[in-house]
Specification:
Number of helices: 7
CATH architecture of the largest domain: 3-Layer(bba) Sandwich
Distance between the termini: 53 Å
Mean pLDDT: 96
Helix content: 10-25%
Radius of gyration: 21 Å
Shape: globular
Low-confidence stretches: none
């Protein structure tokens, strides 16, 4: 009898998992069904470029179902809840899908309404976000009409998707206003709840130095309690204030609401507790999870999902065969950091190793923790790899799940 595999989410993790599993199992060995609430797959790294006119929104969106290999079912519907005891997913359209194995890949949800005032007066005008497609398009208009003043980039709280993206926005904004010959009329401030520009010390020192070099003020340990769109100010819980004329907000993130409606599946933030090495959930042995939906202590970034996918699919095959799981996922992540002026930095790290200088993926390759034109070209090239290699579930030569140590300046 064929295994019934249900995958919740047709984003990066759900799509690459479905496609890799289809290669592992014939249609007579497993039925694979992917569920999502819409048919709009957004290349999320591209959202950063939309506000600056560096890409068009239409160029980063494709139909979800078209990214799935033949022989994979696609069911478009919101998810109501998962009944863990009955091994059944209940959908918003009334359908009930039974499973032998479930993969949770529904990502993180933005919850701007959880911050006082954020979605009130000024939302979509003087208060924006580039973390959604509509938000990025709206911010493009706001930047185009911005004549000068105080631009504030604010992370409300961690964790967030792609932790380097707000920094990239600050660097690109500096370039954008210089290119328009109005940088002297714009004050840029980067406001973060962290005690530094980034979470990892070596990278934080380098990135903080780059903000200073570009005349971008860094405000740390700022826990945003209110966004006052009318008065143009951020207010922290300890009553500090940062004034703005244009605010770019990265809202609070949580898990998907259906997780909270599924007893035993998620934690208090609706993220799914997941073994950080095997990617099997704590909820049930036959439920696995990857990507932004989990609580694993890795960055919520596309590269993490890619590397997790290799280990996860292998473990699904082992689980269904009654074999011992592989606990080899090491938290490997790498991120290109756009720094403006046609340059970018690259960082590569895992659970135990912070980003350090060197080269990736070996002693010859792209420079780490150093701005270069090559890294910028690498970030642009990644979009092609995303659609044509990563989502289809192909292995990318020289880039595997395990973090490479060759080429790194390790202490």
């Amino acid at each position: 009898m064929a295994h019934r595999i249900i995958i919740l989410g047709a984003g990066t993790g759900g799509t690459l998992t479905a496609n890799r599993l289809r290669r592992e199992y014939g249609t007579d060995e497993a039925t694979i069904t992917v569920v999502d609430q819409d048919d709009q797959h957004v290349y999320q790294p591209g959202l950063l470029f939309v506000p600056f006119g560096l890409t068009r929104a239409d160029d980063i969106v494709r139909p979800r179902h078209e990214q799935l290999h033949d022989g994979i079912g696609y069911h478009q519907s919101p998810i109501d809840r998962v009944d863990l005891d009955a091994d059944t997913v209940h959908l918003g359209d009334g359908a009930e899908l039974g499973y032998d194995l479930l993969v949770v890949a529904t990502g993180a949800a933005l919850v701007p309404e959880e911050t006082e005032g954020l979605t009130g007066p000024g939302w979509g005008e003087t208060v924006n976000t580039f973390y959604t497609l509509d938000g990025a398009k709206g911010l493009e208009q706001s930047l185009a009409h911005f004549e000068g003043g105080r631009l504030v980039i604010n992370i409300v709280d961690m964790p967030i998707k792609c932790p380097v993206a707000p920094l990239e926005f600050a660097f690109l904004a500096d370039w954008f206003f210089q290119d328009r010959k109005m940088r002297d009329r714009v004050e840029i401030t980067y406001v973060t709840p962290l005690d530094a520009a980034f979470t990892k010390p070596v990278a934080a020192a380098r990135l903080g130095g780059m903000l200073e070099e570009r005349g971008i003020e860094l405000v740390t340990e700022f826990n945003t309690g209110e966004v006052d769109g009318t008065g143009g100010r951020l207010v922290s819980y300890d009553e500090r204030e940062v004034p703005f004329d244009l605010a770019v907000i990265i809202p609070l993130h949580g898990g998907q609401p259906y997780v909270g409606r599924s007893p035993g599946l998620g934690d208090e933030l609706d993220f799914v507790p997941t073994d950080p090495n095997t990617l099997q959930t704590a909820a049930r042995p036959n439920i696995f999870a990857l990507g932004d939906a989990t609580n694993v202590p890795a960055s919520k970034a596309g590269s993490v999902t890619h590397f997790e996918g290799e280990v996860l699919v292998g473990n699904i095959v082992r689980f269904l065969a009654g074999e011992t799981l592989d606990g080899s996922y090491d938290g490997h992540a790498n991120c290109f950091i756009e720094t403006g002026f046609g340059k970018a930095m690259l960082i590569d790290f895992n659970y135990d190793q912070e980003p350090v200088p060197g080269h990736f993926p070996s002693t010859v390759g792209m420079p780490l923790l150093k701005e270069s034109r090559l890294n910028h070209l690498g970030k642009l090239m990644f979009q092609w790899f995303y659609w044509h290699a990563l989502l289809p579930g192909r292995d990318i030569p020289g880039v595997g799940a395990d973090m490479p140590t060759a080429g790194k300046q390790l202490s």
